[in-house]
Design a protein that fits this description.
Aspartate Aminotransferase, domain 1; 2 domains; alpha/beta; 13% strand; 424 residues; globular; 40% helix; Aspartate Aminotransferase, domain 2
């Protein structure tokens, strides 16, 4: 099946907008993607047709409640969770993670150990360190190789002890692009009796997620990274969620997910999530039919979403290759991440680079003058930038294509970076 970019791009209204009369090139996708028309339609319907709080005894509230239930069911299929009661919505990944540190804290005793990594976004780093400080826990940090940009799992074996109680793991780095071997890491930690909390924010837009196959206890992602609105979604293993004491109001039922979803939920946000899932289903059927297969126990919607993700990843390998090759052709530029095309199945298309004497902010501003949008700095991945030794040098320039970008857009970005460096 041909990956038809024209049909794909037609779903995204923002891609037709202009920047000072020229095209806009969205390469800021690791921080947040553009949204398809399906998202806008669902959000408008919610705000016009049933703009009411959930769980009331009147028509618009009933319709809002039904939508909320469908959103939980849709994300259960996205994650291939066992049920909608394992899905918890929140405003963002960081808020959900801070909440989970509070409800998980009572499970630990002073001297217990947790493991984090040097590849974390700070949202999966600082919350756990704060919890450890409050409870007297020991924090161990798993490094990654500056040569391979990957973990050595033998080093994880060294960190795991009988006191290991939890590990916070990065599925894919929002700076390096590395996709980590989560199944193997979870297996090692589970054998030691530790809980696992997986940050899939950067991976979710680029690959299929199956929490039952991963066997993790928790996994969190942000829907605005995979073509939806500003929402975050946490998967929690039912048997673990049931035993946790939530910090909730008295009026809230003591069942999952209700007890973890504090206050009024975002009606329009959850409606928009339904639109994002609907778009991914369309993409899986229209562009990924060769990857669609009926598997016992796997819902059809899950199969369609996974087919979309596989098709997207195949196309994104071409974007990664063109981007990395172009940047490496510029004198002095260092790409921080896997650069071997044969290993692109172990990375997402997020590509970061630096160069001695180069000001990443100045590069981003120069590209913006030409309608190309990229990020610079640490992108909240402080452990990564510190490990690279770039925290006092402005961090990196990060270019992040996704499946609706074109090779021509990637070439344009590389050309502008080359022009800037040649002039400075």
């Amino acid at each position: 099946m041909t990956f038809d970019l024209d049909r794909i791009r037609a779903h995204f209204p923002a891609l037709s907008l202009l920047h000072d009369g020229g095209p806009r090139v969205y390469l800021d996708n690791p921080a947040g993607t553009q949204v398809p028309r399906e998202v806008l339609d669902h959000m408008q319907t919610a705000l016009v047709s049933f703009n009411a709080n959930m769980h009331g005894n009147f028509r618009t509230s009933r319709e809002a409640t039904a939508m909320e239930e469908r959103a939980h069911e849709a994300m259960a299929d996205f994650f291939h969770a066992a049920g909608a009661d394992e899905i918890v919505f929140g405003p963002n990944m960081t808020t959900l993670t801070f909440m989970m540190t509070r409800v998980l804290g009572p499970l630990f005793e002073p001297g217990d150990e947790i493991i984090v990594t040097h590849m974390e976004h700070d949202g999966n780093n600082t919350p756990w360190r704060r919890m450890a400080d409050d409870l007297g826990l020991v924090v161990k940090t798993l490094p990654w190789s500056r040569d391979t940009y990957e973990f050595d799992l033998d080093e994880l074996d060294v960190l795991i002890t009988p006191r290991t109680r939890l590990a916070a793991l990065n599925y894919a780095s929002n700076i390096l692009g590395t996709i980590n071997p989560i199944p193997a890491m979870v297996s090692k930690l589970k054998a030691a009796g530790a809980l696992t909390y997986v940050d899939a924010v950067q991976y979710a837009p680029h690959g299929p997620i199956d929490v039952q196959a991963l066997d993790c206890d928790f996994l969190v992602a942000s829907t605005y990274k995979f073509y939806g609105p500003h929402q975050a979604v946490l998967y929690g293993r039912r048997s673990v969620l049931e035993q946790l004491r939530a910090f909730k109001l008295r009026v809230v039922p003591d069942v999952s997910p209700n007890k973890f979803e504090t206050g009024c939920q975002s009606l329009e946000g959850q409606a928009g999530v339904l639109g994002a899932i609907e778009y991914l289903q369309w993409l899986g059927v229209a562009m990924g039919s060769q990857h669609l297969q009926a598997t016992p126990g796997v819902p059809q919607r899950t199969a369609e979403i996974h087919a979309a993700m596989i098709a997207m990843a195949e196309y994104e390998h071409a974007l990664s290759g063109r981007l990395i090759e172009g940047l490496q052709s510029i004198p002095g530029v260092k790409v921080h991440g896997i650069t071997d095309p044969a290993a692109f199945d172990r990375r997402v298309p997020t590509v970061s680079f630096s160069r001695p004497g180069l000001d990443p902010a100045a590069v981003a501003n120069f590209l913006d003058e030409h309608g190309v949008y990229v990020w610079n700095g640490h992108s909240y991945a402080l452990p990564v930038i510190e490990f690279l030794g770039l925290q006092d040098l402005g961090g990196v320039v990060r270019i992040g294509p996704t499946h609706y970008n074109t090779l021509a857009e990637v070439d344009r970005a590389v050309e502008l970076v080359s022009d800037y460096i040649a002039a400075h």
